[in-house]
Amino acid sequence: xxxxxxxxxxxxxFIHLQNVVKHFGTFTALRGISLExxxxxxxxxxxxxxxxxSTLLRCINALEQIQSGIIHVDGERIGMRETAAGPKxxxxxxxxxxxxxxxxxxxxxxxxxxxxxxxxxxxGPTLALGEVTAQARRRALELLDRVRLxxxxxxxxxxxxxxxxxxxxxxxxxxxxxxxxLFDEPTSALDPETVxxxxxxxxxxxxxxxxxxxxxxxxxxxxxxxxxxxxxxxGAIVEIGPSSEVLTSPKTERCQRFLAGLSGNHAAHRM
Length: 271
Fold this sequence. Notes:
Layout: E1 13-24, E2 27-38, E3 42-46, H1 53-60, E4 68-73, E5 76-77, E6 80-83, E7 86-89, H2 92-99, E8 102-105, H3 117-127, H4 133-146, H5 162-174, E9 180-184, H6 192-207, E10 211-215, H7 219-225, E11 228-233, E12 236-242, H8 243-246, H9 253-270
Parallel strand pairs: 3-10, 3-11, 8-9, 9-10
Antiparallel strand pairs: 1-2, 1-4, 4-5, 6-7, 11-12
Helix pairs in contact: 3-4, 3-5, 4-5, 5-6
């Protein structure tokens, strides 16, 4: 059994952003973002804190309403509907429906504290998709086994390490059978010893050819697990290209300085 729906590459963009602008009051978080992602691609979003990575993911997942531009996922416009008077924001119900097909894993896990690991993974399929309990339970157990937490099915979040909680969160997102997975700095809240176990699970999801966007500061992981890397700063895309090129021989001076700074910090930590 695979972790998620197996997808295949296609010629056109599966995720398509055109001149996306997002404001928070007077602050512009995204400044005309245009991006195309092919079905089955894995894309790393890198850049300094505050560069717009998390906001971009939240807009793709219809958690934030954009001020202008267009976002399409699998041919469907996200967050908006066409009317005779022009585009109008979706209702909360319709936005929630769109999110069901777009899995998202957050920095802070966001597990339900009163539910066991098994119940957390079952919650979406039973409550949102209307799956019968036995079917949802069977799939939840399979997913917990795939993220190597079958023995923690009856544990509550407070009884799990940060890395274990994040793996439960990944299983919960996959239980909804999404066709896109978004990861918002999935290892930033973890201690160094548990980072790799989460990255290993994400790499396994990628191996199924799930379309993925990963906001991350783990450059070595991005180099091996992402087809493309997008470097962002101040709400704009500064550089984009194959991960092996952007992360090894960046073309822009700003991306060069960013990566050099990360390398220097890592070297300092090793001393």
